[in-house]
Amino acid sequence: MKGNKEVVVIGGGPAGLAAAIAMRKMGIQDILVVEREKEAGGILRQCIHDGFGLIRFRESISGPEYADRFLREARALGIEIRTNTTVVALTVEKCLTLSSPRGLELLQAKAVVLAMGCRERTRGALAIPGERPSGVYTAGVAQNYMNLCNLMVGRKAVILGSGDIGLIMARRLALEGVCVEGVYEILPYASGLRRNILQCLEDYGIPLYLKHTVTNIHGKGRLTGVTVSQVDEHRNIVPGTEKEIACDTLILSVGLIPENELTKQAGAKMDQVTGAAVVDEFYETSVAGIFAAGNVLHVHDLADQVSLEAERMAKGVCLYLNGMERKAKEKSRVVFGEGIRYVVPQYVSGTENFTFSFRVAKPVGECKVLLKQGGKEIAQWKRRGLLPAEMEQIEVDCKTIEQGREIEVMLALEGR
Question: Which tens digit of pLDDT belongs to each residue from 129-147?
Fold first, then answer.
């Protein structure tokens, strides 16, 4: 089967749905949202805790409620959402191969929105030695079993990594009567949001051990325990600090990876730090007509941020489809100084106001975020208590930017 679409959105989570709704409101009619799961909504369907919507809707709601608001609006607007459908190929010409129960289908799109989200880093990526018993789960899989399948994953748990899903699962397990022995983080600081450290660990008396990691897994049929060890500032195991902990469950919350196989397949230029596409302020990749937003572009802390970014991207898609020429003949490359881990977007035309999203490489106290061109400071923002776990954003007035010249984003510590 063959067909044509004006816009194909790959992924029916918070990014894909928000983008589709925004584009429809901007006048784009022929939109198809493709979702590989049996229901749209993405990971939010299994996030039954509240805390979603505080930015986007100004109230605290659960993940399923957050997704449902977008689904209801998308359906009311008549947006086509095709579930149980996987995009197995994407070309630079924006030709997509779809696989579903109805068979294989080729679609030619004028524009493609990448909104595939991210996936969890697994035990295999960590190379933890030991046996291969049951009882070892990524945090998202454990959440899926408990919240969607009503299955208990264990009775005595250790959590490796202090990512937000792991912190939330520590609380979820405790609420179900599981003994959570502790959360072990290899870094000298937590990887999750401060509010989750407080609400999910401290409120439930669950200890957090920094500069610790799991160094062995025990058990043949079922997990019987793990060995945890302290690490030094170089993440090397400190001899003599090994400690065995009896448990039947190990939850891994050790990082998320943008789901970018299709992005690479289409030939988009990739950022080595984010592991995702390089984009401009319109969220267009290096391949004309292919756009990216949400966790497929860089891992966000909040679903609200994902939706808002996707809505900003929708404007870029509309400009592209309407053939509106951008004023800048040459885009400005964005670089960043010491202390900053990454910045998105990586290129800026400077024709419209835009948002920089970034993360620091390590905790920072009082500082200023500086924007420079040609060694000259063009803008600054004061910040306090920046953490790698929390994405920062700054709104930039395009009038401050000189088109075509390299832009540097850097930190200046107070008192220096």
Answer: 888 999 999 999 999 999 9
Token readout for 164 is 């937000």
Order the strands of the 225-230 sheet from edge to edge.
212-218, 225-230, 243-246
CB contact at 8 A, 217 and 128: yes
Average the pLDDT over 322-329 and give the result. 64
3-state secondary structure of 136: strand
Distances (CA, A) of 129 to 4, 193, 211, 375: 50, 29, 19, 49
Q: Are strands 347-348 and 332-336 parallel, antiparallel or unpaired?
A: antiparallel
Spell out where 201-279 has E strands.
208-210, 212-218, 225-230, 243-246, 249-252, 256-258, 270-271, 276-277
Using CA atoms, how far apart are residues 19 and 412, in angstroms rounded to an integer? 35
Q: Which helix (H) or strand (E) holds 19?
A: helix 14-25
* pTM of the shown model: 0.94
Tokens of 119: 């996936």
- Position 159 scores a pLDDT of 98
Q: Which helix (H) or strand (E) holds 166?
A: helix 164-175
φ and ψ of 107, to 5 deg: -125, 135
DSSP H/E element including 159: strand 156-160
Residues 363 and 342: their CA atoms lie apart, in Å, by 14
Total residues belonging to the chain: 416
Determine contact, residues 15/310, Cβ cutoff 8 Å. Answer: yes
Q: Which helix (H) or strand (E) holds 104?
A: strand 103-114
Element (H, E) at 73: helix 63-76
